[in-house]
Amino acid sequence: MSVKSKKILEIILTVVIILILAFAGFLTVSVAFSGNKGYTPLFGHAYVSVQSGSMEGAKPEGNEDKPDGFLKGDLIRIRILSDSEKSALEEGDVISFYMMIGGALRINTHRITDVGTSADGRRLYTTKGDNPSVGNAVEAVFETDIVGIYTGRKLVGMGRVTDFLHSSEGFFCCVVLPSLAIVAYFAVNLAVTIKRAKNTGARSVSDKEKEAIRLEIMRELMEEQRKKSVSEDREKQSETE
């Protein structure tokens, strides 16, 4: 592989790693912020996953200016309401509210069919889904249970993706595993870099360099031998005199 190709590959890998880390960070923050609320607030809005087909149908007559329904598995966008806005809703609005589903408190989204007041003076909304074939029960919703109002915007089928990402399996597959893979990549890359540095430092000696070293050693030995001979000759002369 050429140097240019290696650089291109490194750039691509860096971009992929950054995208994975950004997505993992976003998902982690999203899960942390959603907590027990069932949704993640974002600039006054939230996205809610549709869990049933109760809104799969034509909207009732007289609601032409109100948003249409949606399908099971869609991801709908709601605007989080203030207390004053919750008390000013009207018939035909599609609202998301808390209710007990399967023994747990979850978010449901239905259309308001009637507006009234409870016996204790609280605002009370009657809601129902648009799908007549599901046999939706009428739900009475107090304003304190309301989360927000459906804006009419949705992402088809993305609710299933969101549900998976917020599950323990999805978090493991999309956050834990990619993070471990990135750590492993950097560990391998570091090991390869260290090995290359060691190999560069311990450069092999060529035959020419070996011959030069051998000749230098022989020259030093011969010089040492010459000095030794001169020293012996001088000692002999001293003894003769």
Describe the structure.
With 241 residues, this protein is an alpha+beta fold. 46% of the residues lie in helices and 22% in strands. The chain has helices at 3-34, 83-86, 158-165, 168-201, 207-240; strands at residues 45-49, 75-80, 94-101, 104-117, 123-128, 139-142, 146-155. The mean pLDDT is 81.
Please give a handful of descriptors for the protein shown:
single chain, 241 residues, alpha+beta, 7-stranded antiparallel beta sheet, 5 helices, 7 strands, 46% helix, rod-shaped
Break the fold down into its secondary structure elements and pairings:
Layout: H1 3-34, E1 45-49, E2 75-80, H2 83-86, E3 94-101, E4 104-117, E5 123-128, E6 139-142, E7 146-155, H3 158-165, H4 168-201, H5 207-240
Antiparallel strand pairs: 1-2, 2-7, 3-4, 3-7, 4-5, 5-6
Short description:
α1 (3-34) packs antiparallel against α4 (168-201). The chain has 241 residues and is α+β, with helices and mostly antiparallel strands.
The average pLDDT value, as a whole number, equals 81
Structural class: alpha+beta
Dominant shape: rod-shaped
Pattern of helices and strands = HEEHEEEEEHHH
**Count of helical regions:** 5
Please state the CA-atom Rg, rounded to the nearest Å: 39 Å
What spatial order of strands do you see in the largest sheet?
1-2-7-3-4-5-6
Helix content: 40-55%
Low-confidence stretches: none
The major pleated sheet works out as: 7 strands, antiparallel
Q: Could you give the count of β-strands?
A: 7
Distance between the termini: 79 Å
Strand content: 15-25%
